[in-house]
Amino acid sequence: MTVERLFLSPARGETQRECRQLELLAGQGVVGDRHFARADWAGQQLTLVEAEEIERFCAHTGRPDDLSLTRRNVVTRGIRLNQLVGRQFRLGSCLLVGVETCEPCRTLGQRLANEALSAPEVVKYWVGRGGLRADVLGSGSLACGDALSIVEPGEDAA
After folding, report:
1. All structural domains of the chain
2. How does DSSP assign the chain, residue by residue?
3. Residue 91: closest CA among 108, 116, 69, 73
4. What is the pTM of this model?
């Protein structure tokens, strides 16, 4: 249950940047990301996806492995992210809460479509596999290799 890769997207449509570390602020999200300090919807502050799902998609479509292709902030390994919906967890020194699954959108479908797989087929493929939307409850930093730990109900989250 670790952080494999970290990314931020400074602006919509701009090339995503791989980072060694991300700073997260409670109630605001990833410092420098295009969604920072926005509150348009719950779960907008941080997105996570499983490396295993990206690798499975790449193998299924004959693409080279590219852990940035979903444009999520955090790529994890060894944890089923869908199980974190409604749960608090720690990642690095940050306290987070899983808000909802991060279902695929038309933009993802269009970006990953090719001759072999149409945009609607891409979206259908990623349903239930697109990762997790989370909000930041406690500020801190994330780095590659950081562990993810679930905060059990009744456990002191501070």
Report:
1. 2-148 (2.40.33.20)
2. -EEEEEEE-SSTTSPPEEESEEEEETTTEETTSTTTT--SSTT-SEEEEEHHHHHHHHHHHTPPP-TTTT--SEEEES--GGGGBT-EEEETTEEEEEEEE----HHHHHHH--SSS-HHHHHHHHTTTS-EEEEEEE-EEEETT-BEEE--TTS---
3. 73
4. 0.93
The residue type of 58 is C
- Report d(CA 70, CA 139) in Å as an integer: 25
The two tokens of residue 35 are 């969604």
Classify residue 34 as left (phi > 0), alpha (psi -120 to 50) or beta: alpha
How confident is the model over 84-140, as pLDDT tens digits? 999 999 999 999 999 999 999 888 999 899 888 999 999 999 999 999 999 999 999
Residue 4, Cβ density class (10 Å: 0-12 exposed, 13-18 middle, ≥19 buried): middle
Q: 5: which residues sit within 8 A by CB, 6+ positions away?
A: 18, 51, 67, 68, 74, 75, 144
- Count of residues for the chain? 158
